[in-house]
Amino acid sequence: EVQLLESGGGLVQRGGSLRLSCAASGFTFENFGMNWVRQAPGKGLEWVSVMSGSGGATYYADSVKGRFTISRDNSKNTLYLQMDSLRAEDTAVYYCAKSPTFIAAHLDSWGQGTLVTVSS
Amino acid sequence: EVVLTQFPATLSLSPGERATLSCRASQSISSYLAWYQQKPGQAPRLLIYDASNRATGIPARFSGSGSGTDFTLTISSLEPEDFAVYYCQQRSNWPPLTFGGGTKVEIK
């Protein structure tokens, strides 16, 4: 059974930094693209970033480009999201989600999410 | 960027009724559309991928159709656990992957 467990969320001041983690189990981690998707309170879903299975390719939404960095450690089956220069509009639940392919596609498994609150 | 528009925003129905949800893309996305269900306080769950393929473990009452720019998610007979918010998502032209704004299916 695929399991994704996010951690690292919390309250941070505007302009601050936070690193999220997503521990994966139940599948061969290095074979699949992994994504971050966020959801602001009471709002819809917004894709944030994806990293290919090997880690060789990364893509970002324009809203976070240059501020967020996705990475992964395939030896630890863990995905990360380094978030810098945080803004109030980054406040959201952040989900990690697995692609069924090497890079982005639909998202076939999701974690339970971790809440990031940026105070102004 | 491909913009997905979902309608209606809210659908008020009774258990046992048929639900028809729509998703329209701003440009052709072939069949590269997925549908998700999200209940309050929970993560989204994949229902349908590539327009018409049910994900693992999804009941047969959920079906998807469409191609190009117009897509439909149909729930043939609503069960109490189906009242939730539904999102569509495209993977044809990315980045970015984009989602629709959601349709809330509520109990009438």
How would you describe this protein?
The complex is a heterodimer of chains A (120) and B (108). Chain A has 120 residues and is mainly β. In chain A, 0% of the residues lie in helices and 50% in strands. The model of chain A has no long low-confidence stretch (mean pLDDT 97). With 108 residues, chain B is mainly β. In chain B, strand 9 (85-90) and strand 10 form a beta hairpin. The mean pLDDT of chain B is 97. The interface between A and B is medium-sized, with 22 and 23 residues.
Low-confidence stretches of chain B: none
Distance between the amino and carboxyl termini of chain A: 40 Å
Radius of gyration of chain B: 13 Å
Summarize model confidence as the mean pLDDT of chain A: 97
The number of distinct β-strands of chain B equals 11
Between the first and last Cα atoms of chain B, what is the distance in angstroms?
35 Å
Largest interface: A-B, 22 and 23 residues
List the helices and strands and how they pair.
The complex is a heterodimer of chains A (120) and B (108).
Chain A: E1 3-7, E2 10-13, E3 18-25, E4 34-39, E5 45-51, E6 58-60, E7 68-73, E8 78-83, E9 92-98, E10 109-110, E11 114-119
Parallel strand pairs in A: 2-11
Antiparallel strand pairs in A: 1-3, 3-8, 4-5, 4-9, 5-6, 7-8, 9-10, 9-11
Chain B: E1 4-7, E2 10-13, E3 19-25, E4 33-38, E5 45-49, E6 53-54, E7 62-67, E8 70-75, E9 85-90, E10 98-99, E11 103-107
Parallel strand pairs in B: 2-11
Antiparallel strand pairs in B: 1-3, 3-8, 4-5, 4-9, 5-6, 7-8, 9-10, 9-11
